[in-house]
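Curious: why these numbers?
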Amino acid sequence: MNSKILLAGIGGQGVLFAHQALAACAIAQGYDVTGAETHGMSQRGGSVVSHLKIGDTSAPLIRQGTADFLLAFDPAEAYRTLPYVRRGGAVIVNSNLPNYPDERVRAQLATMGVTLCVINADAIARGLGRASAANVALIGFATTCDGFPFTRDAMRETIARSAPERFLEVNLNAFDEGVNAGS
């Protein structure tokens, strides 16, 4: 398997936990993994971008126009990082905005053959009483999107192994609700 996944969000959204969980899932399946994170004022709500390459370990960063998947934990960060997505790739976004993305962006994604999957992961997490679980809901949802490199079962097992004990139940519930939203 060769897959390039770009994760984008803002500080405090759990982008790095998501990166670690996806990497752990790939490693558990015997794949080589490399990646890098960029933090821009992440502790103050700034941009956080994480590059994850599975199988192709020639360089840690994903070049623009080559990402197979963009997992965006914030709708504005999705817009900002769209240039990284390749033709035929997929964009998986956490958004509560009506008509997201706007018509022009939808048309451009369609022209490029990019699949768009949108979920309100924040609402799922708030419904579970832990707003910070939106990242795990987004990962669960991603496993239902065509071509995503990890199965629901493999990713759920990884979340179970990776989540801190005190957040295990809420993370598994968030993951399951994300899966259910995509099914």
Q: What stands out?
A: The mean pLDDT is 94. Strands lie at 3-10, 33-39, 47-54, 67-72, 85-94, 115-119.
